[in-house]
Amino acid sequence: MKNLLMILGVTFILGACNNIVFDEAESDESKTVASSEESTDAAEAAEENAVEEKEADVEEAVQEEEWIAYEDMEQPSVQYIKDISPNDLALEIEKNQYDYPVVNEENLENYVQRFDLDSDGNEEEIKILMDGTYSGEHASFILAIYDHRGNPKYAEYLYNAESVEKPMPILTVAELTGDGFLEIVIDSTRGYGYMEGNGDQSISRLVYGFDAYTGNFRQLPAIGSYYDIVWQEDVAVQIDERVSGLSDILNYREKDNESVDLMIEHGLLDDYDSRIGQRLVGESRRVYPEKAMKLNEADEHFSLAVVDVIHDIPDLSIISKNLYQWNETYEWFEVVGSNFTSLDDDTFSFKKPLYTPAKFNGTFGTGDKAFEDYMGSWQMVIDGKLQSRYLDIEEEVIYETERDLKDYEQVIEREITIEDYVYKEETGQLIPRGVMKPFLDQPYNKEYQNLFTLLEIDNEVMLMDQYGHLYVEEGNGDREPEEDGWVYSAEAEDVDSIEEVDQPVSIETSIDVLSPDFMNEYFAGPEPYTFDGIEEGMSQTEVENLLGLPEEYYAVEGAEFAVYDNLAILYSQYFPTRSGAFEHINPDENFVTDTEVILRVPHEEVVAAYGEPTLSYEEYSELGPGPGRDQTIYDHTRGNGYAIYIEVGLSGTAWLMTKDEEWDLLDED
Question: Which end of the chain has fewer CB atoms within 10 angstroms, the N or the C?
Fold first, then answer.
């Protein structure tokens, strides 16, 4: 790494005095005095020089520990996709390709496309895949890029697909950044699901491009937005987007006079300040790309026109069509035009040039910000409203935390060990790079890279990440680690106002499902297998007070199990309530009705331990239809009234094991 600090050297020039006449008697004494003074000056100069050099070395060492310069980032020598070293998920797909099929063979053109992405004369392949190993609430989809020989080079989970029937198709492939590689844009129209109210609505979740500094593809950063919406009259609002500086007035009477008259007639607009004004900001936002386009034929690369649903409630939706262009200096997609009134054409009411460092620093007062200003605790904010996500940035580690503001015990935390921080002096941006500890919904692609930018809005310092999410410095009070038994109080001013909560009771949820002891107990009779400490009739609230949030959810027909290691719990309302799903269910009135066993081991290991089944899942699939997924059935004591069913996934993993009535079709064999 090249050193940015300039080591200042001090050069001392000793001059000689000419044309001075000394008396001969005074000559020797004068020389002695002069020599002594020169020695003292030289010693002082040497000491001063040594101190300055030592300070420079210390300052240089501190800087070297904290960050490296952007221009000193090492780049892998990758010019073509065939030279890319595949990431973790791509390697997994290459190893177990049958577990990751293309999502829809009928509309193949939506999910498989071929383009020469790197201009080497060969066409690469882009696919949308389904993760056949995933057993959660919704289907899990993957974007995968293959070189022209069919080798997967990049793969990443998509963020906002909702169900197996509606995977996200490939919208377009176009040159958006001017780097010589084509970018891939994934469609996220309303019909394909969306994220709401939690910050994941960024277009950077949907645009993928090559990154020279990682030597592979990644989600490309995008600038964020901060909408300030003020009601002017009973049917008009002033909309100011504080980050781009674009604004407009939306008059509902001009938009839809009939609907406005109906709302006034029914009294819906009489008290707009309290009823609607409070709902319009920071609660619901969706974004979905429309198309890539060129404003002028002479443009070297495309822009991206995106429809941003700022707020969506019946008859009062606020929708903006925004035009994004790539800012090479800041390395993000940036809004350069908007239209709040019409989505029917490609015109934009307001336009602005891309930010330069001088313009950005002048607008947001960031010229005096430095590396250390990024350190600390930050809380996400959408349009002025605090959200339940946090960033804790330290010199050696970053924690990304999601917690339910209504229930502080519901916490998801991602831990990133920092390898280095890269500081862009020209723009004042910080790039953290490191390794993320694997967690449940992200077992692959542990490499971590982000892009942080500081800005001020209304004299409040904010941090923006690569997805455009905005964070403010966390308020007064300490947020101690959850495992220490402390929870954060948003109103806390000192330690005395932080509440202590009960420590969870230890309940063994992990068992050796292939051990003889377990098999002898489970196969002994029709009685259900029970877990000590979890009893029928306990409420979901009581269970989660003991065990915390489930690791995952296992869907069955018409219901869903909450899963903890090998324990699967079914509640009386058939689904466990949680943030963002089934929130209408009261957890205090959702009671345990059944506990089952999750095996989570390869099917061949089950057969090796349990013996040959009465009916293998391959035979079951051919014989069907039967209850649920393809299952292996153990019913060697035919006629005793029960059988053991083991559900098997596409990857050959054995999952849910239950005891149920004997299957009549077995008698027909």
Answer: C
What six digits make up the tokens of 135?
């057993």
Beta bridge partners of 581: 578
Q: Buried (b) or exposed (e) across 152-171, using 16+ Cβ within 10 A? A: bbbbbbbbbbbeeebbbbbb
CA distance 202 to 286: 8
Q: Residue 324 and residue 450: Cα distance in Å, rounded?
A: 20
Say how far residue 364 (Cα) sits from the centre of its chain. 25
What is the identity of the amino acid at 155?
A
Q: Above 80 in pLDDT, residue 14? A: no
- Residue corresponding to tokens 């020209």: 426
Beta pairing, strands 567-571 & 407-424: unpaired
Give the strand pairing for 559-564 and 552-556: antiparallel
Tell me the C-alpha distance between 207 and 178, whole Å.
14
Count Cα neighbours of 527 within 13 Å in the Cβ-side half-sphere: 8
**Sign (positive/negative) of CA torsion 465, 469, 472, 478?**
negative
Q: Cα 494–500–502 angle (5° rounding)?
A: 170
Measure CA 122 to chain center: 32
Give the pLDDT confidence score for residue 497 in this predicted structure. 35
**Rounded Cα distance, 149 and 578, in Å:** 44
Q: How confident is the model at residue 246 (pLDDT cuts 50, 70, 90)?
A: confident
pLDDT tens for 496-552 read 333 333 444 568 899 999 998 898 888 888 888 889 889 999 999 999 989 988 888
Place of tokens 């030597």: 215
How far is the C-alpha of 157 from the C-alpha of 436, rounded, in Å? 15
- Would you say 162 and 168 are in contact if contact means Cβ atoms under 8 Å apart? no
Question: What stretches of 34-162 adopt beta strand conformation (E)?
Answer: 68-69, 112-115, 124-130, 141-146, 152-157
Helix (H) or strand (E) holding 491: none
> What b/e readout covers 277-310, taking b as 16+ CB neighbours within 10 angstroms?
eeebbbbbbbbbbbebeebeeeeebbbbbbbbbb
Distance CA 367, CA 136 (A): 46
> Alpha helices, DSSP H only, in 436-531?
516-522
CB 379 within 8 A of CB 405: no
Of the candidates 368, 380, 379, 377, which has an alpha carbon nearest to the alpha carbon of residue 397? 377
**What average pLDDT does this structure show over 154-161?**
74
CA angle 265, 269, 272 (to 5 degrees): 165
Q: Please enumerate in sequence order all residues whose Cβ is within 8 A of that of 469, keeping only pairs 6 or more positions apart, or say none.
A: 199, 202, 224, 380, 389
Task: Report yes or no: 615 and 666 within 8 Å, Cβ to Cβ.
Answer: yes
Please report the pLDDT score of residue 480 as a whole number: 35
Considering only 13-27, 54-68, 281-295, 574-588, which range has the smallest mean pLDDT?
13-27
Pick from 239, 246, 322: nearest CA to 286: 322
